[in-house]
Design brief:
Strand content: 5-15%
Structural class: alpha/beta
Distance between the termini: 8 Å
Largest sheet: 7 strands, mixed
Shape: globular
Number of helices: 14
Length: 367
């Protein structure tokens, strides 16, 4: 495919601060946190459900209605649009639609997929260039696409770092963050090659029983393996022998292995992770996630505009031009544009206001 830079902007120009991350606390402070409504929604108090958990649809509907009250007071929501890239987004869309009873449609994009196709009555797929024809098609099919419509757009590998086009740059930012934090913890003992081997191993599905495909758990496991406290071979044997059945099992294995020679940098991170795990926090490796935010923004509008496109899409995180254009058209029609992401808040927005959705990035589209 041929791509071109069509401008620069930030996602906040489309969504404002109607952005929700893992904690389900909206960045826009006019919208309350769903935690105060969990019990009234029939959900367990305390921790909001994540995208893949039961009850997510109820919580998301409550937030969307609160956002809609801010933008379109007194007008009920009747339609739900969703733009994403994974089966997780499809599951979230169905949870929200079913919880609310709204008319709905979802577009799942990935370059290399081909022309727009309809897999199911409410599910469409195609290259990212097809998202605009998708909007036009559902309008022809009777969607009002106005003040009674809400649109939920995923961020990573959808609004930015488009899957099949630019997603590798997001993965590189995460890897950079892991490497930096582990280097700071281990100092001269850091072995870059050992780190890469560890990441390639534990990022596989065979290790999901202990990592749960949670990047915090993966990063912490890479720290342990890079430190030499537990060898990659020893971990492999424990996993293959089914002696480790959860991340908690692995963490206890680490506890038993810590000795007098364990570095202060490692101990500091280990103790921080332990406190978060005890509190039931699904994002226990805070230092890694905060660094991920910095490294993600560092890869936005970082290279000269004349950089060859192949290099640009490999190294820099860009806004998906077709999603941007479709969003702008919907916004002009009065649609409430929001973004829901399961990414940790710590990797997305900082207390000082630094945030991925506020960062300027190049907007890249197909020609």
């Amino acid at each position: 495919m041929n791509y071109t830079i069509v401008g620069k902007g930030s996602l906040s120009e489309l969504f404002g601060d109607f952005v929700v991350f893992r904690s389900m606390v909206p960045v826009d402070k006019r919208v309350p946190s769903v935690t105060e409504a969990l019990e009234s929604l029939g959900l367990p108090p305390g921790k909001p459900p994540r995208k893949r958990e039961p009850g997510y649809g109820k919580a998301a509907v409550w937030l969307l209605e609160k956002m809609h009250e801010v933008q379109n007071q007194g007008v009920p929501i009747q339609e739900l649009l969703f733009v994403g890239d994974t089966s997780g987004d499809l599951r979230a869309f169905r949870e929200i639609r079913d919880a609310a009873g709204w008319k709905g449609a979802i577009f799942l994009g990935k370059d290399g997929t081909g022309a727009l196709r309809r897999d199911e009555p409410d599910v469409w797929r195609g290259d990212w260039a097809e998202v605009i024809p998708w909007v036009e098609e559902i309008r022809r099919q009777g969607f009002a696409l106005g003040g009674t419509t809400v649109a939920v757009v995923d961020i990573d590998k959808t609004a930015i770092g488009a899957r099949g086009r630019n997603h590798g740059a997001i993965d590189k930012a995460r890897m950079d963050a892991m490497r930096i934090v582990i280097t700071e913890a281990l100092g001269d003992d850091f072995d870059s090659e050992a780190f890469v081997r560890a990441y390639r191993e534990v990022n596989r599905s065979e290790y999901h029983l202990i990592t749960e495909d949670n990047q915090d758990y993966i990063a912490y496991t890479c720290l342990v393996l890079s430190s030499g406290l537990i060898s990659l071979e020893a971990l492999r044997q424990e996993v293959q022998g089914a002696r480790l059945k959860s991340f908690g099992d692995f963490f206890e294995m680490v506890n038993r292995s810590i000795g007098a020679s364990t570095s202060d940098g490692f101990r500091k991170i280990h103790e921080s992770v332990a406190r978060s795990l005890e509190a039931g926090d699904p994002t226990p490796f805070k230092a890694f996630r905060r660094e991920e935010l910095r490294q993600t923004i560092a890869r936005m509008d970082a290279l000269p505009d004349h950089t060859p496109m192949e290099e640009l899409l490999s190294e820099e995180i860009c806004i998906t031009g077709e999603v941007w254009k479709a969003g702008a058209r919907l916004k002009e029609r009065g649609v409430l544009l929001t973004s829901f992401s399961d990414k940790p808040d710590e990797a997305s927005v900082a207390p000082d206001g630094m945030a991925v959705h506020r960062a300027i990035a190049k907007i890249v589209s197909t020609r």
